[in-house]
User: Which sequence fits this backbone?
């Protein structure tokens, strides 16, 4: 088993109001089979034994599915391996003697709570404005009464996969949330069940997105490139189209009503 | 006496009769009731959304930063339902039968039948919410098969079924949050139940950002806080999955049902070193197309591709020709352990078996295999650095699910009036072994369809008097939690919470794991008692209460895991038989299968807390099997 000796430059910030700064640490004998977060566990256990405050980082499933984890690793959201969440990154992707810089997501809409932990509540507030189909429990018809062709279903799935990690926002120079919002809007717009609320959904979600202070999309593509679920940029295109159609329909409805 | 409150009548009519007999709360009065739901996994999110839709005021809590991150999100394989879309003679009755048999005749018939009945509604509900299940080209839903069943009744969304079902349930919850019917408290750790006059009337929480410890009142409390597999330290559960909510409820009077019934999942990625922080599941669905084998000879050092067919032992296919690789989990896990104990294990420390896709790739083509399992193969490669399209996976059993949990009656109410437990947090439907794709089904059944009915019955008799938050019980409960927090931080010993947790995990895995016996269990109990003392004198909790502090969160959880671990061992010791996942080496058939003792152990054990350090009292709920005759389980 190979092992690595590394230097870590980690962003430390006590709370939202603290200014924060980088602190340098050394870790030795890290197995290349260990995960990146296991490497941080080792550092933290060591810090505690030295009576120092361990580094706060978000994590839970450690299987790349809950969306809890995420930090900037050497300037890249979720680190060097594409299509991979921070927790699925393994140390075999690093080199002996390397210095690794670790920072939290940086975006106005995601305030830092401590060290590498940020508040992504803005994402939920967007979803609460329309990221659903209005159907009460018990009001559903037999599932096979709704036909969805495999190709459409598969495409809807590629949006539904978003784990809400926030890497797209962190990677974007404008801190735009268009990929996150696009993924959900796209999933629901593609499915027949989502049709009745199509227009109001996209309008309300986009309004909330703007209120939260996310930036505009200028088609840079960094979001998709760093997304651990490789959510495609065409979902942003679909979001834009949905939004324009919605604006048109509500203008027409306004004229009728 | 334990009254499970099973309705009268034929099993097919019990639930319908009950729905008719329950007292109803008038729609206009529902908004006068506050219901607390702790947990936003499948069981909690489904309950919170459905209760709010009915008109109740709901306060929902989770320790995650978002409801969407509950551990249900990690479920891979699928969800069962008796839809019979495949024309395979499936039915509610067959799902009921399979689940009772799969649980090795240690589950309550009436509950399981209800579960099978509402299973079909779950799929309807999820599809209406926009859950993108796998489909066929004609637009109809697709199914696959899972262990312990001979029909294809499992609905799935690639290898991410739990994620998609959870996002569906959370979308319903989010809608109610938007409508103002649910107040959602994220990053809140529940640390106690507030009791007034013997009823559950609220909870105490710690705000995980500010550290503020406060109470919340409600007319009823639902705990949907998930399973306790992390007692073992290493498990397939998420790192923060814990037993604190149910354990603290237990200490307030809720009986604990079948604590020793733990599921060890046969196919997980083996540990790679002592820094290992968790284990990763490779879904059971892989056993549809993957073949489990080890070399015939012990100590065979050849690489798997070079071992000829006639020198391989496909031991599950050999021993269980009818079910083959798809035998239930407990049986598969024990057989893998057995071949490893014989020295035929593979990989660096010989604690693994192969799960081989070569033949399926030849038969179906790599593309089909990729379409079915692509994300699992990728996950395997990320973790191990090996490509499973080229070389067989290495897998080993790991702790995965806990069938035990708070004891609940047919209404899912615990022995504390007004306190409910749903999803993995209760003990209810899986007996001594859970079948694959049945936990998602149960969590959603409890949350969407059962609790919304049964809780109304309780509230209707309760009356909607506002709960007096000035009642001294609230302040008392808050003060207790504050005191406990101070105590933990004040110990300032030498071991981190994780270090003590790992010690507990080793005691549990060695003695209360896949094979248990009297001697080992007694040893475990003694060691856990010592570890508890060690914890309370030597744990080191860095930092303060008034900040984001994961060490403090962990310390609270480890303290509870230690006590629960002891109860698990006590329960395993008291159950002098083998059944399902509970395998006592003293009790096995000649062929090495679990030997039940129906005469003496056909009961649910329900333990009552008697105070710190005092032995708990065992209560028994006798199980009756009117519709499925108990037999020696056979998958040959
Ligand atoms: C890797 C994996 C794969 C699985 N695959 C399948 C599968 O394919 N099919 C299947 O049927 N089952 C599967 N299971 C089992 C199934 O996923 C779980 O049993 C089920 O999702 C549990 O749901 P739940 O709602 O009861 O709890 P969880 O989803 O665990 O939710 C618990 C909730 O409670 C909250 N909580 C817990 N404690 C507290 C506290 N003290 N204070 C505040 N909040 C708290 C959490 O924040 C969370 O919201 C799998 C399990 C694992 C581990
Ligand atoms: S779109 Fe991708 S990067 Fe953005 S939140 Fe979703 S999963 Fe994360
Ligand atoms: S910890 Fe869950 S996605 Fe990384």
Assistant:
């Amino acid at each position: 088993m190979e092992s690595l000796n590394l230097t870590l430059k980690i962003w430390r910030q006590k709370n939202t109001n603290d200014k924060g700064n980088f602190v340098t640490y050394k870790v030795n004998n890290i197995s290349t089979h260990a995960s990146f977060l296991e490497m941080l566990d080792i550092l933290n256990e060591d810090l505690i034994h030295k009576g120092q405050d361990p580094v706060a980082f978000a994590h839970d499933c450690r299987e790349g599915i809950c969306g809890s984890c995420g930090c900037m690793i050497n300037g890249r959201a979720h680190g060097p391996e594409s299509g991979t969440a921070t927790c699925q990154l393994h140390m075999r992707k690093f080199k002996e003697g390397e210095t690794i810089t670790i920072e939290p997501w940086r975006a106005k809409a995601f305030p830092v709570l401590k060290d590498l932990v940020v508040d992504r509540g803005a994402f939920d507030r967007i979803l609460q404005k329309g990221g659903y189909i209005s159907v009460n429990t018990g009001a559903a018809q037999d599932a096979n009464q709704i036909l969805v062709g495999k190709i459409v279903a598969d495409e809807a799935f590629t949006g539904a996969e978003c784990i809400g990690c926030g890497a797209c926002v962190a990677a974007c120079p404008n801190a735009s949330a268009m990929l996150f919002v696009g993924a959900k809007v796209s999933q629901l717009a593609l499915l027949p069940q989502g049709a009745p609320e199509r227009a109001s959904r996209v309008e309300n979600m986009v309004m909330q997105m703007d209120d939260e202070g996310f930036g505009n999309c200028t088609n840079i593509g960094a979001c998709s490139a760093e997304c651990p679920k490789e959510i495609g940029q065409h979902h942003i295109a679909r979001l834009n189209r949905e939004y324009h159609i919605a604006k048109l329909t509500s203008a027409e409805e306004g004229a009728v009503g | 006496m334990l009254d499970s409150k099973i309705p009268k009548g034929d099993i097919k009519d019990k639930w319908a009769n009950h729905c008719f007999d329950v007292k109803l709360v008038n729609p206009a009065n529902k908004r006068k009731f506050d219901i607390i739901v702790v947990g936003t996994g499948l069981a909690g999110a489904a309950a919170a959304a459905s209760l709010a839709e009915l008109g109740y005021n709901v306060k929902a809590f989770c320790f995650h930063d978002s409801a969407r991150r509950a551990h249900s999100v990690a479920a891979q394989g699928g969800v069962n339902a008796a839809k019979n879309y495949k024309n395979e003679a499936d039915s509610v009755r067959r799902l009921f039968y399979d689940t009772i048999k799969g649980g090795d005749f240690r589950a309550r018939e009436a509950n399981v039948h209800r579960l099978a009945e509402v299973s079909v509604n779950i799929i309807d509900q999820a599809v209406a919410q926009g859950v993108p299940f796998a489909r066929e080209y004609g637009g109809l839903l697709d199914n696959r098969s899972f262990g312990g069943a001979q029909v294809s009744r499992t609905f799935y969304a690639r290898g991410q079924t739990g994620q998609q079902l959870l996002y569906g349930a959370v979308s319903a919850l989010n809608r109610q949050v938007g409508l103002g019917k649910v107040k959602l408290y994220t990053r809140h750790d529940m640390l106690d139940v507030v009791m007034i006059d013997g009823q559950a009337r609220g909870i105490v929480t710690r705000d995980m950002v500010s550290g503020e410890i406060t109470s919340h009142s409600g007319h009823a409390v639902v705990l949907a806080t998930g399973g306790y597999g992390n007692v073992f330290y290493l498990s397939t559960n998420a790192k923060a999955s814990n037993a604190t909510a149910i354990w603290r409820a237990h200490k307030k009077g809720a009986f604990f049902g079948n604590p020793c019934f733990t599921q060890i999942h046969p196919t997980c990625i083996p540990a790679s070193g002592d820094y290992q922080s968790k284990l990763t599941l490779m879904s059971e669905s892989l056993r549809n197309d993957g073949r489990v084998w080890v070399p015939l000879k012990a100590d065979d050092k050849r690489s798997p591709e070079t071992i000829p067919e006639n020198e391989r032992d496909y031991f599950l296919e050999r021993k269980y020709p009818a079910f083959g690789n798809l035998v239930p989990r407990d049986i598969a896990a024990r057989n893998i352990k057995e071949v490893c104990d014989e020295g035929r294990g593979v990989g660096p420390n010989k604690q693994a078996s192969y799960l081989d896709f070569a033949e399926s790739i030849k038969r179906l083509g790599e593309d089909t295999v990729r379409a079915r399992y692509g994300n699992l193969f990728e996950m395997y490669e990320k973790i191990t650095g090996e490509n499973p399209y080229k070389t067989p996976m290495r897998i080993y059993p790991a702790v995965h699910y806990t069938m035990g949990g708070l004891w609940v009656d047919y209404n899912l109410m615990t022995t504390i009036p007004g306190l409910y437990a749903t999803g993995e947090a209760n003990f209810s439907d899986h007996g001594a072994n859970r079948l694959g794709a049945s936990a998602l089904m149960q969590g959603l059944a409890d949350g969407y369809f059962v609790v919304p009915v049964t809780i109304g019955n309780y509230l209707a008799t309760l009356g909607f008097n506002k709960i007096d938050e000035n009642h001294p019980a609230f302040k008392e409960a808050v003060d207790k939690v504050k005191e406990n927090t101070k105590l933990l931080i004040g110990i300032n010993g030498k071991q981190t919470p994780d270090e003590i947790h790992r010690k507990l995990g080793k005691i549990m895995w060695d003695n209360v794991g896949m094979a248990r016996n009297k001697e080992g269990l007694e040893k475990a109990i003694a060691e856990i008692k010592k570890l508890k003392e060690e914890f309370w004198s030597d744990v080191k909790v860095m930092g303060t209460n008034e900040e984001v502090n994961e060490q403090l969160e962990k310390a609270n959880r480890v303290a509870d895991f230690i006590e629960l671990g002891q109860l698990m061992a006590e329960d395993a010791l008291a159950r002098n038989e083998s059944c399902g996942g509970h395998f006592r080496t003293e009790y096995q058939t000649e062929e090495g299968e679990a030997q039940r003792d129906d005469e003496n152990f056909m009961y649910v054990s329900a333990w009552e807390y008697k105070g710190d350090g005092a032995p708990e009292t065992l209560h028994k709920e006798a199980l009756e099997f009117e519709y499925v005759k108990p037999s020696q389980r056979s998958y040959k």
Q: What stands out?
A: The radius of gyration of chain B is 24 Å. The domain at 477-595 of chain B is CATH 1.20.58.100 (Methane Monooxygenase Hydroxylase; Chain G, domain 1). The mean pLDDT of chain B is 96.
